[in-house]
Amino acid sequence: MIAANPAPHWFKSSYSGGSGTECVECAHVSHGVLIRDSKHIEGPILRVKQTAWHRFIDSVRHDV
């Protein structure tokens, strides 16, 4: 029997305000990261490989 994949744990950036203006949520999954619009959670989900996600985060941190 194959175990079902658990539902992703979505989170917002710690830089997001609490006023409902957040626009992006992310979830770490075994094959990478999922990204969605927090105001339209039933909409499309972008899937990003782990290596691409780390490169993106590094470029944001280092203002590249």
Shape: flat
Order of helices and strands: EEEEH
Distance between the termini: 46 Å
Q: Into which percent range does the helicity of residues fall?
A: 10-25%
**How many beta-strand elements?**
4
Structural class: alpha+beta
Name the average pLDDT.
83
Looking across the biggest beta sheet, what order are the strands in?
1-2-3-4
- Strand portion, in percent? 25-35%
Main sheet properties = 4 strands, antiparallel
Q: Report the uncertain regions.
A: none
Number of helices: 1
Structure report:
It is a single chain. By secondary structure, the chain is of the alpha+beta class. It has a domain at 22-61. Helices cover 19% and strands 27% of the residues. The chain is built from one helix and four strands; from the N terminus they run E-E-E-E-H. It has one helix at 50-61, and strands at residues 11-12, 24-29, 32-37, 46-48. It has a four-stranded antiparallel β-sheet with strand order 1-2-3-4. A hairpin with a 2-residue loop joins strand 2 (24-29) and strand 3. The longest helix is centred in the last third of the chain and has 12 residues, at 50-61. The mean pLDDT is 83.
